[in-house]
Design goal:
The complex is a heterodimer of chains A (about 200) and B (about 525).
Chain A lengths: L6 E8 L3 E6 L11 E6 L2 E14 L16 H7 L3 H4 E14 L2 E3 L12 E4 L2 H7 L5 H7 L6 H13 L5 H15 L4 H11 L2
Antiparallel strand pairs in A: 1-2, 1-7, 2-5, 3-4, 3-7, 4-5, 5-6
Chain B lengths: L1 H5 L2 E7 L3 E6 L13 E5 L3 E14 L3 H4 L7 H7 L4 E14 L2 H6 L2 E2 L9 E4 L2 H8 L6 E7 L6 E4 H4 L3 E5 L6 H15 L3 E6 L8 E2 L5 E2 L2 H4 L4 E5 L2 H6 L6 E2 L2 E2 L5 H6 L1 H4 L3 H14 L3 H7 L14 H15 L4 E2 L6 H10 L3 E5 L6 H29 L7 E6 L14 H8 L5 E7 L7 H6 E6 L5 H8 L5 H9 L6 E6 L6 E5 L5 H27 L1
Parallel strand pairs in B: 10-20, 10-21, 11-18, 11-19, 14-15, 14-18, 16-17, 19-20
Antiparallel strand pairs in B: 1-2, 1-7, 2-5, 3-4, 3-7, 4-5, 5-6, 8-9, 8-23, 12-13, 21-22, 22-23
Helix pairs in contact in B: 7-21, 12-13, 12-14
Classes of the chains: A alpha+beta (about 200), B alpha/beta (about 525).
Amino acid sequence: MAELKDRAGEVIEASTTEFLTQCYELYQSPPLGSLVKTVDEPVEQYGIVYNATTASIEPGRRPIARGRDETSEEDIYNSSPQLLKLLRTEFNTLVVGYRENDATYHYLPARPARIHSFVYLCQPDEIKEFSRSFDFLNILVGSSLPVSVEEIVAASLRRMSMVYDEPHSFLVAAGKELALLLGGDFNRLKSILGKIRS
Amino acid sequence: MSENIEKLGIVVSGSLTRGVEVRLDASASIEEMAVGRYVTIEGGKRRFFGMITDISLGVTDQRLIQAPPDISDPFMAEVLTGTSTYGTLHVLPMLTIGGDVGDLIEGPQPVKTVPGHFSRVRPASQQDIETVFGGEDARKFYIGTPLDMETRICLDLPELVKRSNGIFGKSGTGKTFLTRLLLIGMLQKSAAVNLVFDMHSEYGWESRSEEGRKVKALKQLFPEKVAVFTLDEENSKRRQVSTDFVVRIGYDEIEPEDVSLLRQTLNLTELAVEAVYQLYRRFGKNWLQSTLDIEDAESIPEGLSIHEGTLGNLKRGLATIGRLPFLTPSSTENVVKRIIEYLDRGINVVLEFGRYTDITAYILVANLLTRRIHGQYRDRMERAIAEDSAPPHPLVITIEEAHRFLNPGLASQTIFGNIAREMRKYNVTLLVIDQRPSGIDEEVMSQIGTKITCLLDNERDIDSVLSGVSGRSELKSVLSKLESRQQALIFGHAVPMPVVVRTRDYGSADSYREFASGGEADVQQQAEKDIEELWD
């Protein structure tokens, strides 16, 4: 069962293809490409973090520079502790599959996540289970994101490979899957492969 | 997992006439493939057997070719192999076995369709090969193994000798060894007897291989079943060959047809050949001696219209024949009769030419003897049909340098052309050994049942050997990639599908023992058969 310490935040905006999570702590978003999940019994939705932002909680009020008289960045936060409450960190997640009744599916779930669902970082076992099939790459490669898709694919594969004893063979297998998906577009393939080479 | 390693790839496209394209799996290394190797294709309902006839490289994106990736990076290389860059095999399906019990009993059938898309392809297993070619038994003779396999490829020899056969290959590729093997096979497994016109004295008694090793031949391996006849007694004695008969041919045995065949080699004019017929009509059997006795144009007998120049031309030609030492003005022994006696007893006859390797002698003797033997066989066969009695032993006549007398100019005249065409009606077939198959008449070539070819590299030779074979362009690439020794492509009547074999070992003590043991079994069988016949 998901544990409190692995909780990364709460869903504050959700659609079929992605959800937006606000972190409980400033700057504590999961690394780019991480596999995260939201739990909405009996469905667990999996997503890959593709973007993170930190900004003012009120769109109209932008932060201003405060460090002229301070010696370190740390001091800025110490002298204005309210800052931690006025700013927030959010991250976007692309839905890549779900788990229901002990089976993992690498396609979109029936419903989007609920607002205020908790978002957890996936554990190595879950990552292994999820990455047993590379079908999720199809969703990733086919998505249109504000950030470069190649970056996200590479980041997610790099992170997933960390949980394996032999990251190299995992990456080679993933690379081969990508080579098939991007059969007609060698340049994209090359750019991803360049970012995941081990 | 082991199943995956076994798998070579999947069928991706193709047609019955051109063969199918197989995309190689990433796990299968293209460098380990070889043209001529067998694969099994697992279709939905039936299995297909085919031969790899071409191997090529492919890419999914043309940009890969224009800007090749850095393959020195092992990760890049590993990922791209088998995905963006892949190997394809061109496979020619040849036989099929259905999944039903009935089909299994029927055995492999020629293909009439192709396997479906994405059928799995794997290397043919030993068992598959055995299913197709069958194991060694009373009829089947082990000739060699397929490439990179231990399975024995066996030829059904009684079936083989029903048609004329050919062994081709450029010189030094192992034709002689193959022929020896095949002759031994016929000796052991088929009811046929052989008459070998042994131009270079290689088949009767031992000779040396190219490496200088002494290699035993038929008479040494099967002394009871082989008789060596020689044209050159002196040579045979020097080589310490135990000959059974010294062949002498009387002038009176030479007929005008024999001379007309030699027209090219003797450099005779048309008119000179015409004159031979006239002289034969005039002098009868003794025409040759009588012609040689004519001194000049003035002594030409009355009533013969032979020009002086023609006579000169003819006499020069005939003198060449007359100088052949094995020709005698009169011979007391009838060679043909002796040969047939031996053949009737089931004894194979090897006729050694000794030093007379000259093509004139070879054509003359081979034709002369064969025509008479063929004539005898025809009479006896016809009598056998009329009287419903046992036909004569099937006879296989082995000739070398076949293009010299089966060329388009002569094929219609020689008896060999006849035999090749009439085939087995009279129980006589040919075993043609040649290095220039393109020189052999097309019609004769098309009648050759089973062709065994070693490496050929002349385009015309390859074309002529493969003429009329389905999938010839595919086989062509296989043929031209054969190794220069001990490899042969066999196709035609006696094999269910074309096969490349590494020919069986010949020349070692072990190989002789194996031949001998096969022979003994046969002797046993023959004895049993004879006993049966006694009681009939």
